[in-house]
Amino acid sequence: MKELELKYGCNPNQKPSKIFTNDGRDLPIQVLNGKPGYINFMDAFNSWQLVKELKAATGLPAAASFKHVSPAGAAVAKPMSDTLKKIYFVDDLELSPIATAYARARGADRMSSYGDWAALSDVCDKETATLLAREVSDGIIAPGYTDEALEILKTKRKGTYNVVQIDPDYKPEPIEHKDVFGITFEQGRNELKIDEEMLQNLVTENKVLTEEAKLDLVISLITLKYTQSNSVCYAKDGQAIGIGAGQQSRIHCTRLAGNKADIWYLRQHEKVLNLPFKPGIRRPDRDNTIDVYISEEHDDVLRDGAWQQFFTEKPEVFTREEKAAWLQTMKGVSVGSDAFFPFGDNIERAHKSGVEFIAQPGGSIRDDNVIETCNKYGIAMAFTGIRLFHH
Fold first, then answer.
1. CATH T-level topology, domain 270-317
2. What amino acid positions are annotated as catalytic residues?
3. Domain 3-171 class?
4. Cβ(119)–Cβ(141) below 8 Å
């Protein structure tokens, strides 16, 4: 199959629409179920590249959760604590390594992952399909599916769930093209290999990167390679925990990603873990309620009468002081940036979310100020010398 007709493009008025190859080769994908659209395939091909690179760089099964051509989460298969299993709503499931990777990828920012496109580096098994079956998701791309997994996925969304299989050996041409306003752009594909070798130029007084930090920095940089720029990624324990994508200002990326990382960590506080939800509350409703409970708008959940639709009893107030004290215990976080930090304010904001390790290209006229701010907090920072813009 050399081309596939789509229902429409980005929007229903954009017709005709199709995907095809320019080199005469067959498409490297098979649609096993559903009818994926234009944006679905944009998510599918970007997310597949991300998980394939993560697997190649780490040797671990990898997964991503994509929305609007940027990852909401990305992770590799590392064992999860009971706390993480609980906040990711998978403490009742048996998880294989690839299912663990997806649970981590989706769990980092469950609000953004609602209606996601899932990507797996490995064959989708029964455990991963079972997890996906009960979440709101638009589709999945993987190099293969077990018979049991495919049977489960075909029942999702009344039989319309999008299931795409990709040839893991497919390699595109080294030159890529893109049309904008009738003009064709051409460039070499971004074939940059990201691994620990990129982290050797440590420019701060602290020149110690733990093995865990090296893994997390590699994950953050590979994630940024497929995130709409400007972008910043916070990572910890083998997964992205906060991604700030598509911002015009670097500090806004850092704040957005940092706020998401904070929410990820606040969800692990005992007050959130012990919220007295009524039986049968849907996971998306729990996510929304938890998000509001953590935010400064928690009075909307706790005001007289409002809490009764979610909880068996009125929860305790999660005070600003309690949240600040909990966030001060957040440590060992890594941050990657797709371009240089122009000011030390980015480091100040990252430090508030427990960041101890940073990888960024360097090259700002204010590099000295950025390094000085890192030294103030004992942060180890590597200059990679490589920009990772993605548009």
1. Helix Hairpins (1.10.287)
2. 67-68, 230, 391
3. alpha beta
4. yes
